[in-house]
Design brief:
heterodimer, A: 617 residues, alpha+beta, Penicillin-binding protein 2a (Domain 2), Beta-lactamase, 2 domains, 5-stranded antiparallel β-sheet, B: 3-stranded antiparallel β-sheet
Chain lengths: 617, 485
Amino acid sequence: MQDYDNRPDKLIIGLAVAAGILLVKLFFIQIIDDKYKADARNNSMVYDIIYPTRGVIYDRNGTILVGNKVAYDILVTPRETGVFDTLLLASVLGQEPDFIRTKMAEYQKNRKRIGYQAMTLLKQIPPETYMKFAEIQYKFPGFKGQVRSIRDYPVNAGGNLLGYVSEVDGDYIKKHPDNYRSGDYAGKTGIEAAREADLRGEKGYHIYLRNSRNQIETRYMDGEMDKEAVPGHDIVTTIDATLQQYGQQLMQNKVGSVVAIEPATGEILAMVSSPGIDVSQLADISKHYKEIAANPYRPMFNRTVQASYPPGSVFKLVNGLIGLEEGVLTPDMRYPCNHGYYYSGSHKLGCHGHPSPLDLEQAVMMSCNGYFCYVLKNVLENRKKYSSTAEAFDKWREYTLSMGFGRKLGSDFPAELGGNIPTSKYYNRIYGKGGWRFSTIVSLSIGQGEIGVTPLQIANLSATVANRGYYVIPHIVKESEGVELDEKYKERQYTMVDTTEYKKVIQGMWRAVNSGFGSGGTASIAAVPGLDICGKTGTAQNPRGADNSVFICFAPKDNPKIAIAAYIENAGFGATWACPIASLMVEKYLKGEISEDRKYLEDRVLEGNLMSRVKTD
Amino acid sequence: MAGNYERALGKSLDWKLILIFLILILIGWVNIYASIHSSEPASIFDFQFRCGKQAVWILTSIVLALVILFAINPKLWQGISVPAYLFVLILLVAVIFLGTDVKGSKSWFDFGVVNFQPAEVSKITTSLLLATVMSRPSFKLPRIKDLAVVAAIIGLPMLVIVAESETGSALVYTGFIFVLYREGLSGWTLVAIGMAILLFILTLTCSPLVSMLVLIGLISFFNALDSGRIFRWLFIFVPLIVLSAFLPSIFSSLAENPDIPGLVKQIKPVWLVLGVSVAAIPILMVKAWRNKDSFLTMSCLGLLAGVILIFSTDFIFNNVLQDHQRQRIEVLLGMKEDPSGVGYNVNQSMIAIGSGGFSGKGFLNGTQTTYGFVPEQTTDFIFCTVGEEWGFLGCALVIILYVTMIWRILRGAEKSREPFTRIYGYCVASCIFMHLFINIGMTIGLMPVIGIPLPFLSYGGSSLWTFTILLFIFIALDRQEKKYF
């Protein structure tokens, strides 16, 4: 054995080296590397999310537009259920027995993935149903109810204005990775979306320790590290609930929009898009989504901010104001109109019967087409100032943009569109450079042709005129505790037309309403004694059937409190539908009620059904 | 006379070894209790649970130990070694046909109350037979005939156990190589085994070329050591090998050269190295034969074996190993990230141990083990509970206890004048060491997942009884010798 004498020592050294390797590795993973400690936390902590209650939405007078109410989800932990009476459960929950069978079969199929998790069997069942379930719950181990707060709509203020809240999908989470997880809810349209960040609040959580089979074992650190949910901020809107609701009623069975603004502040008082989503469908929008989407009148489409219409005659105000500012028009200028305006030879842009010649005030009052053709002609063919029609046209476009057309106004209401005001380049492209002149685009004089404006922009025009030359960007949310308002909603936006020019058209608008029937004034039906309403009618051609009925007005004439635009599709003359609707809303807002001698008008509007005139294909 | 005998008994027993045994068993029991402790703690004696059952195993083990120490003449062991070995071998085969299927391996006899695994007992009988055969005066290890006998004694149960799909248990038998080394097997055998493992891993994780270069480097180095020509090695082989390491990049730059015909581009750098080595082998063999240089001969054979291993690695890996074995090796070598599948066990086990930190989370405060993230937490992964709840200190204590135990066994074996006792002692030490290193190595990601228990700590009667018997036969043999003095 003498040959091998040092072998035992070698083996002992080997043993020590092997033990050393184990100890070094242990030292590394237990003391040096922190990764495993973090992994262990993730492994065993369960964050039980506590959802905050969503902020309440108030109107300008403190009326609740959107509140919260209690509903229940029915949860089931498939592993904990035994054999149960499917028929009884189904009848109590108001479901088909097959619904429950299908769900349970589905859970059975995915039981490995589900483990001991609770699955949502039914969402948002009303408290009455839940109470029935609670009485017999003891018969159904594994089933339980979970309180949820869902939206409640005490005032029918219209689904397009308020917007809806629904579960976030994958795309939404991708866009807002920090704030949303699967299963969260978020405002998708309207005010709910506009002020989502304020309304949603902050989620809280309770931390539990779980085992690897997903069973909750205990509270982590007795709840010391838990975070309570922070409720969302309440939002005070600029909406007047009464006016909004009244507008909804008036717009029943009509397609179009009404937008009312408080001129001095730019606050939107009412915003009706008809037909709209009924508030009764909002709380559980996903259930009604298909039905709403299939409606041929497109109730999801918020016409007030997204529809692009030709403005019609109300745009004469814009052209008149530009003419005045450009110095090519004075209030005393008179132009003849013989049932229309003759441009290039025998081509005529027709007009209705009225005295001739007229000055500016009368032209506004009687909405003379011919007069405003002369005005736009003078603007565009002013060779003293502009070398070409194109150059003059671009200047004209600049004016309209300064008045809020052809671009987004920048309202806080989501999904606002900007309409369209063409550029000279656009006409160059169609007709060739120099291939077009005033007569080519004569219809712009009366608000027809290639221009598109939204009802919000028309209402903003009304407010601008009411303010004699400025507007405040229309907005829907008022400043309140915890909710800040962007500075831009407090600033006056002056147009490129001098404030002194505005009063020159206002008198015409006053006379359009207040000259009495037979005077030639187009909006006599809107007159309300004592309110001094100033208005301008419009009848915009609609390639899809009858003309659109348009009316803008504000009141009272001095120190106006409300400016409004009504745009009713396929409703004919401005005076027939838009004018009564807008004036009734003004009366309602300023007087609180409709006077006896105008009740007939209200009844006519309420009963009027124009839906059949609207082509839906 | 009687008093004298008792004094002798007290003195001759290796009390320190017995104490370590008792401490380890106690640590195991406490940690089994902790690992199944949930938020509703049961009594440690509750027989519904494993901690309660383990108490029974512990008590019976102590009875077994007492029987071995005081009721059985230690001379008996050498006498029954042959029939015992054969009997267990028969059991090992029988279990394949009669045993119950536990997680895909057929190695358990199910007796209702008690399950019994012959593969465990086989460690005892194999050790006894090895000690019997190797302690014969005529036995000389380097002799081919004796080597073959020893290989058969170790190899037979190994083969049968592999057939039972208990590859892990079979791997433990490779530990007997240390016994053979102690008894005269060339140290180069150990080096060769180490190199084989190294080459296998290198080929899988790097490339055959790297393995070839390492193989040539090592063998030329050993030769240089043997012939004392270290400088020649340093100035000729090292630069050549380093240059060869750049062959792939040289080849890939050549591949971009359009002047070189496509056929030449097909040549891979590893073929070049392979060609040179294979050509060198006969030349070196002739030189070795002329100079009667047996070391050089063995080196040539080693080189040849190495080359064969390197180029059959892929085949062995993909065709010989079973799917789960291959996956476990892939996870261990980081060839595949699979924390939820095959890597789950190791990942969770490392999280549990790693989260223990320096002093652990405290008794019953572990979240990973008590909440059941770690699989097999009372048996193969019992060390996780030690790591999580007692931290680095606890782990170090357990390892030091084992090392002390093995060291005392080795010391006792060396002191013995009976070759039988010495060899048997080495067998016991090897078994404990293999289990210890493989098991703990597995829980901390040093070894692939091989399902063998941690001696004395893991839950289970078969394992605890086996190691108790294994250990106490040695203690009894050890005492018997001292009694004469």
